[in-house]
Specification:
Rossmann fold; 11 helices; 2 domains; Glucose Oxidase, domain 1; 21 strands; ten-stranded mixed sheet; alpha/beta
């Protein structure tokens, strides 16, 4: 196709005008345009953005967040940390390199909905050529395009994270009422929805034995660990007895969705880490950083609109690293006083805590993703530091 088109709908009579800048379109494409579903992004403040629906046609509700990455839409959609959220992409063209079997971060899409300025309907065939539309349909996730994503992102930055819906239903007022009545997704135990139910062992003969406390772990983290260790991938609700019975050498607490201070997490993973923190070398990633902080009686808080993207600068050891991030909560630096933990990495943009380290115990954690996927691999050396920490006498 390759023709720049723009669809404008008249809400009164349902007609569709296809503007082509004077270029002639095929009859087949015009017919396709007429079949495109009218769809809305509806925010709790009353904003209604009209667009073109794609993916699976259903109404979904969630917390509306944005990602600033230029690439990595497939990794983001399949990141379990997006559970409960409607994802808005800041980069204007999405789907141009298609969807492939290599860039999954889990076995399914976890975002509840997807919002883009323009979706590519004819992607490059380099990686197989599957469209973003077909990808969303497969996992029954709705999307909306032709939305002014810049204005939506500005609104979120000014007012903070908003509840919202993607809807193919013309009864906008009814959907808006439900949006305003819904609880924020993080009021539920989202980790419990994405953490595995069973223990999986990934053997590496002769290697150190690491327990991965899987709170919704990205595939990239597991790949980095499997290259170095025998990995016990365990549920977030695992009890302290497991670590002692299996003679593990170290513990990793993964990323995951939702509020780290949720009562069900406090009773399970945070309580477990509190009881074993003196016994094992430990690294936390993203949510894992917050869990470790809470296990040492620190505090966390919700950010105004979070950090999500592959371009967040972090100050660490006298250098600035560009990092991949996806989190809506942060550690309160002042709350760490007297805990034994110290904040040693900070976000250059807003000064929030990006890394913590214990002053005596072999424990450290980072708020960003050293495994990238997507994004720069500037900080992948931290997995090697964790390995060295376990080998220290």
């Amino acid at each position: 196709m390759g023709i720049d088109t723009h669809l404008v709908r008249n809400r009164t009579n349902g007609m569709v005008l296809v503007q082509t800048g004077g270029k002639k379109l095929s009859t087949a494409y015009l017919f396709l345009a007429l079949l495109m579903a009218l769809c809305y992004l509806i925010l709790e403040d009353g904003t209604v953005a009209e667009g073109t629906g794609f993916g699976f046609e259903k109404t979904v509700y969630g917390e509306v967040v944005f990602n600033t990455g230029m690439t990595g839409y497939q990794e983001s959609l399949t990141d379990p940390s997006y559970t409960g959220q409607i994802l808005v992409m800041s980069y204007p063209l999405i789907g141009n390199y298609g969807v492939n079997s290599m860039d999954f971060e889990s076995s399914a899409i976890h975002a509840r909905g997807f919002v883009v300025r323009e979706r590519c309907v004819d992607p490059s065939t380099m990686y197989g050529g599957e469209t973003i539309d077909a990808f969303l349909r497969k996992y029954k996730v709705p999307g909306v395009s032709e939305v002014d994503t810049r204005s939506i992102i500005i609104k979120i930055r000014e007012h903070g994270t908003l509840r919202g819906a993607i809807s193919f239903d013309d009864d906008i007022e009814s959907v808006l009422e439900k949006v305003r009545e819904m609880p924020f997704p993080a009021e539920s135990n989202l980790v419990g929805q994405v953490s595995p139910k069973d223990i999986t062992i990934h053997e590496k003969p002769g290697a150190k034995r690491v327990a991965l406390v899987d709170c919704g772990c990205k595939g990239g983290i597991l790949r980095e660990l499997k290259e170095r260790f025998t990995v016990f991938d365990v549920p977030y609700s695992i009890r302290p007895k497991f670590f002692r019975d299996n003679d593990v050498d170290g513990v990793v607490i993964s990323n995951g969705p939702g509020n780290p201070a949720h009562p069900e997490l406090q009773e399970t993973v945070t309580n477990t880490i509190k009881r074993i923190k003196d016994d094992y070398p430990m690294i936390g990633i993203c949510l894992g950083t917050q869990i470790i902080s809470l296990a040492f009686d620190g505090k966390t808080y919700k950010l105004k609109y979070g950090h999500r993207g592959a371009n967040q600068p972090v100050s660490f050891r006298g250098k600035v690293y560009i990092t991949s991030q996806n989190h809506g909560y942060a550690v309160d630096a002042e709350s760490l006083e007297g805990s034994g933990l110290m904040a040693d990495q900070f976000n250059v943009n807003d000064g929030t805590v990006e890394g913590i380290r214990h002053k005596e115990l072999p424990i450290f954690a980072v708020q960003y993703h050293p495994e990238a996927s997507p994004g720069p691999r500037d900080t992948s050396f931290l997995f090697d530091e964790f390995e060295s920490m376990m080998e220290a006498p």
